[in-house]
Amino acid sequence: MKFVSEVCENCGDKILGDSPKGLCPACVLETGLGPLADETVAGIDDPGHPAEVLMDFGDYELLEEIGRGGQGVVYRARQKSLNRTVALKVIGLGQWATQAHLKRFRREAEAAANLDHPCIVPIYEVGEREGSCYFSMKFIDGGQLDEVARRTPISIRNAAELIAKLARTVHYAHEHGILHRDIKPGNILLDAKGEPHLTDFGLARLLETKSTVTHTMDVLGTPSYMAPEQASGHNPATAGLTSATDVYGLGAVFYQLLTGHPPFAGGTTYETVRLVLETEPRQPRLWNPKIDRELSTICLKCLEKDPKRRYSSALALAEDLEHWLKHEPIRAKRSGFFTHARKWVRRNPSTTVLVMLLIVLAMGLSVTLWNRKPGVLIPKSVAVLPFENLSRDPDNAYFVDGIQEEILTRLASIADLKVISRTSTQQYQSKPRNLSEIAKQLGVANVLEGSVQKVADQVRVNVQLVNAQTDSHLWAETYDRKLTDIFSVESEVAKAIAEQLQAKLTGQEEQIIAAKPTDNVEAYNAYLRGLACDLRMDALRAQKYLREAVRLDPEFALAWALLSYVDARGYIQENLQPTDALRDEARQAAETALTLQPNLGEALIAKGQYHYACLKDYDTAVRYFEQARQLLPNNSRISECLANVTRKRGQWDESEMYFNEAERLDPRNVNILSNHARSYIHFRRFPEALRKLDQVLNIIPDDVDTLAKKAIIAQAEGDLPRAAALLAPLHPTTDDFSVLEAQVYQAILERRPAPIIARLKEILANPDPASGYVIGELRFWLGWAQEVAGEHAAAQESWRQAHSELESFLKGQSEKFTGICDLALTSMGLGDKAATFALTEQAMSALPIEKDAIVGPESIEVLARVAAQMEEPDRAIAALRQLLSIPYWGTVSHTPLTPALLRLDPMFDPLRSDPRFQELCKDKQP
């Protein structure tokens, strides 16, 4: 495909290579009409005088130019015969017009003139004067859509309403045999009431020549908004354009309204067309995290390259938008990762690997980061602050926490509300004075405060809803109920808040709010205790109380769901012993919850978490999480789970989008912020990770885990003094294993291990049996530190004990990837080459990169380390080259290897004289 771009000799605008005499069509028009400027009256710019006439054009007086484009000029004009103001578009063919041009123009213009729709600008007259085709239209005293949007941003909901109206308008035209072929913001006018009017209907395909592709393209549309089948350059008479072409145009306009950017925009016409043909549009939610996921799906379906994959008609698009506006399920389905990958690879088979690497490296520039400064507060938004415990018994604090969480959970099911999760509000005091500042931090307009007093089986709940911006009380109520009737209080409070904030409730949402989870008071009491422990991340106690809850009421679906979630999370995070028995309990609990209540959002989350954490079945996990989103649209846990799943699948941009969404719903949740920081660490995007970790420290100052993460970043950057300063004040136990690991690795990198050897011996003198395989890992670290210190015999003894303990632990589980990696490194220390490489291969088979893009590469790092120690330099270098080019979770330091770590880590000492290794140690890697 050949594109030739020139500059108009008259006005300097870009034109296409085969334009007559090197002039743009608008200037061609002016050569036919004469120099308009010479006929302008001197006082035309005087606002105190009526507009003067630029010139006569038959029955029309041209008053002022109101727009120009590739086809000609649009004027505000007065039609003399009817004394009315019109918009007159004059197409500049002049002396180059042929009878075929004029016949074709008249035929298509007259067809469009037969359209009679309130959202289509009506055509009054079609004609030709001295070779210049023209048509007059109704004058809309408003602005073009793009100009209006620049002055006053259009809300997401209003954008959906506007496109739905335009889609029905386009469908009307299609029913009458007319395609638009040039739908763009400049061809959409908004009147004084904000109603849209589509103009230039049927007039985009005016010229039919045998010239170059570029000329055809010029008259067929605007590159940023035209469909790939237009941009491909086929002759319009034979291209077979369909209604799907206009659906694409509507999607492109919708994309611009949602994001503020066209779907494709290159520096030149050629570059833009290349992007249209060869690339996928960027996810709208990466431009604007506030865009609803379903709305993004609708928009991207319109922009499919293959017309058959778009909406079947403009009417289908309108109906899906109307479903979304009514909070009903949409019909469009989101394209999965592999669908996108197949499309790209099919278009770019020779450069797939190179471009994928460039995408990874460019993510730091292309992803919109979370902005901590709150923007305009959404009126329908609320945060539920911690309730005050007025009970004499402080042990009732769990009950108060549970009531707050249950009210919040019911509110979170309302799609028309923005609800902040409890993890972001629990740090605040009950009834604080600075409500306005808290609301700004959380990004909400309203705050719910409350207190709970429990005496025996009698409960009093006081609640008040406050507009934090004005400090005005919107609503307050006191409930005196029996403990057995506490569920109705939670439901009534949630419904009252929705009514006060004018949030619309669907029938399904009303059912969720009114649901009574159990009739057994003792079971509910145990559940609330388990819930309180779960919120404090105390997995062992949460598990204990939740098992008691389901024992007391085997039909308590909500308790089964939470038990499954706690088990599955404990399995992957290893704060519970990750045994086969734990995995089986997670499965059975989730299945029981779903059997009891198939539409319980929490049960769907639990089943998704089980497939993600225990089975690494990410496709199934995503399906369950997506189903849960329909029922719990404000649940940040779902967004975080989806961020974790997409990260493991290697869908980096989607993972970033989900993290941003989770932070929007739960802006001060330190677990989400820390997890997000971990993603940046995986990518070696250390400045961004540090900023995210500083957000955590602003919420929980001096948090040891966060300080340790900052230290391992300093290690990865080769700044050992900064790492030492961060780690020195910390005094971790086996409960803070990651912090302890960072301190041990610091001593090894500094090659001053004596103090840490003494510390490890002290901890291992009386090991906690509940620590499980952590003790085996600590013995491996002790052996490594002793080896660096030159204590070879002591190191061998530590590794023998570590090997025995890790082997014993692995017998209780069938798929313990981390344990296999640890055992391989321990066997390496013992010098058992055959066993070491066998275990390394076992780890690579147990969790390949294809199954887990973040943790999977750990086994490759193990291979690099054991190959370096076992005199296999070629294998070590090959593994290191691969590792330095990809993001992943580090085996030893929980950061990926960097050139700085290669220079410092003693395990790579055997490679130091190898020129290939020396090249890898250079800071600037290709």
Explain what the structure shows:
The protein is built from 40 helices and 17 strands. The radius of gyration is 33 Å and the shape is globular. Strands 3-4-5-6-8-7 form a 6-stranded antiparallel beta sheet, with helices on both faces. Strands 12, 13, 14, 15, 16 and 17 form a 6-stranded mixed beta sheet that branches. The protein has 5 domains: 5-138, Phosphorylase Kinase, domain 1; 143-335, Orthogonal Bundle (Transferase(Phosphotransferase), domain 1), CATH 1.10.510.10; 381-514, 3-Layer(aba) Sandwich (Rossmann fold), CATH 3.40.50.10070; 521-633, Tetratricopeptide repeat domain (Serine Threonine Protein Phosphatase 5, Tetratricopeptide repeat, Alpha Horseshoe), CATH 1.25.40.10; 732-920, Alpha Horseshoe (Serine Threonine Protein Phosphatase 5, Tetratricopeptide repeat), CATH 1.25.40. By secondary structure, the chain is of the alpha+beta class.
Number of strand elements: 17
Strand order of the largest sheet: 3-4-5-6-8-7
Please tell me the total number of domains.
5
Helix content class: 40-55%
CATH class value of the largest domain:
Mainly Alpha
Question: Could you please say which CATH topology of the largest domain applies here?
Answer: Transferase(Phosphotransferase), domain 1
Name given to the CATH architecture of the largest domain: Orthogonal Bundle
- Name the CATH superfamily classification of the largest domain: Transferase(Phosphotransferase) domain 1
Largest sheet: 6 strands, antiparallel
**What is the radius of gyration?**
33 Å
Name the shape in a single word: globular
Strand content: 5-15%
Helical segment count: 40
Find the structural class using helix and strand composition: alpha+beta
Poorly predicted runs are 1-7, 14-21, 31-50, 204-220, 234-238, 336-355, 358-376
Overall mean pLDDT score? 81
| Oligomeric form | single chain
The rounded distance between the terminal residues' Cα atoms is 32 Å
